[in-house]
Design a protein that fits this description.
CATH topology: Aminopeptidase
Mean pLDDT: 91
CATH architecture: 3-Layer(aba) Sandwich
Strand content: 25-35%
Number of helices: 3
Largest sheet: 6 strands, mixed
Number of domains: 1
Strand order of the largest sheet: 1-2-3-4-6-5
Number of strands: 6
Radius of gyration: 15 Å
Structural class: alpha+beta
Distance between the termini: 41 Å
Order of helices and strands: HEEEHEHEE
Low-confidence stretches: none
CATH class: Alpha Beta
């Protein structure tokens, strides 16, 4: 087991709780979003991870979680939502594009990290999805 992954989750829970949300259904975790304000650009919220349980998919939960997150006090002043997505992750790409449409905001996709940036050479490249400017969400 790679020990830094659980540690990174603990750090996220400790330091980014105000910019993260979870959803529960019947007392169990149905979905989550972990995000943070970008230090070089505080008007940008970077979504580090988003996940929806397999039995909760197809109901718009991911989009609801993102909108709820953008409405939190810690996200006041956020004008851009960013995330990196691998080319094979069509579900996440569709989610971010659908959110952009619903917010009536542009969604730009640009290369972020080439495969060579990752150790071992087996990781896909990551594209940066940047939605915005987005209107304030209440």
């Amino acid at each position: 087991m790679e020990l830094n992954s659980p540690y990174s989750y603990l750090l996220s829970a400790a330091y980014f709780a105000e910019t993260s949300v979870i959803a529960e259904q019947d007392g169990r975790l149905a979905g989550f979003v972990w995000a943070f304000r970008s230090p070089p650009e505080p008007q940008a919220l970077f979504v580090w991870q988003i996940g929806v349980a397999s039995d909760a998919r197809g109901e718009g939960l991911g989009k609801q979680l993102l909108k709820r997150l953008l409405a939190r006090p810690a996200c006041r002043g956020v004008r851009y939502l960013e995330a990196t997505v691998t080319p094979s992750n069509t579900a996440s790409a569709a989610l971010f594009r659908a959110l952009a449409r619903e917010l009536d905001a542009p969604c730009a996709v640009t290369p972020a990290f080439p495969s060579e940036s990752f150790p071992g050479g087996a990781h896909e490249p990551e594209d940066l999805f940047r939605i915005g400017p987005i209107p304030p969400i209440n």
